[in-house]
Specification:
The chain is mainly α and 185 residues long. The protein has helices at 2-14, 55-71, 76-96, 103-116, 120-136, 141-151, 165-168. The chain has a domain at 55-159: Serine Threonine Protein Phosphatase 5, Tetratricopeptide repeat, CATH 1.25.40.
């Protein structure tokens, strides 16, 4: 009996299994499905541009440069040079995260900073920044404002000197306008 048991075991080990009636005859290769993660918002610890600025750093530079201009208009040329590197970082940020919802706001505040500087270069940069915003982020609320202002030609133009009604109707020292003195009896 032990001989037949050994024969039975070796025969079972050497026998080829028969395929199941519903199993495919040839195995198809398995192709893994890869889902690339596309982030909408850039991480705060990622750095952009030549200066390797973070998204918070970009926003802070725009804010701080605005405060410099508010305090002293003579800082305008220095601020414009500083903002060139900030623009570089914004372009890099947009290239890596084109759907980032923080970008339109940052571009809008940059445009507003350029617009308040009294310089032809700053006005040209304000217009270019607004066109960039409207073109690349057309569905953003800031782009809606930008389209309206661009259509009304309010972006990148020199502001008209403020004249109020009080300065427009100043009194003159015209003798003919002065009341005549009354004759005395």
């Amino acid at each position: 009996m032990s001989a037949s048991l050994v024969t039975l075991m070796t025969g079972a080990a050497s026998a080829t299994p028969t395929p199941a009636p519903h199993a495919p005859s040839a195995a198809k290769p398995v192709i893994p499905v890869v889902h690339l993660l596309t982030y909408k918002v850039a991480p705060a610890d990622e750095y952009f541009g030549k200066l390797k600025m973070s998204i918070l750093g970009i926003r802070n530079v725009i804010k701080d440069d605005g405060l410099k201009v508010d305090a002293d208009f003579s800082q305008t040329p220095n601020v414009i040079r500083s903002l060139a590197l900030t623009e570089d970082a914004l372009h890099d940020w947009e290239a890596k995260y084109p759907r980032d919802s923080w970008l339109p706001h940052s571009l809008f505040t940059l445009e507003r900073l350029y617009a308040k500087m009294d310089s032809d270069v700053a006005r040209a940069k304000a217009k270019a920044t607004m066109i960039w915003l409207v073109h690349d982020f057309p569905t953003s609320p800031q782009a809606k404002i930008g389209r309206t202002e661009l259509a009304a030609n309010k972006v990148g133009v020199k502001p008209v000197p403020a004249t109020t009604a009080a300065t427009a109707t100043t009194t003159t020292n015209d003798v003919s306008a002065a009341p005549l003195p009354s004759p005395s009896p």
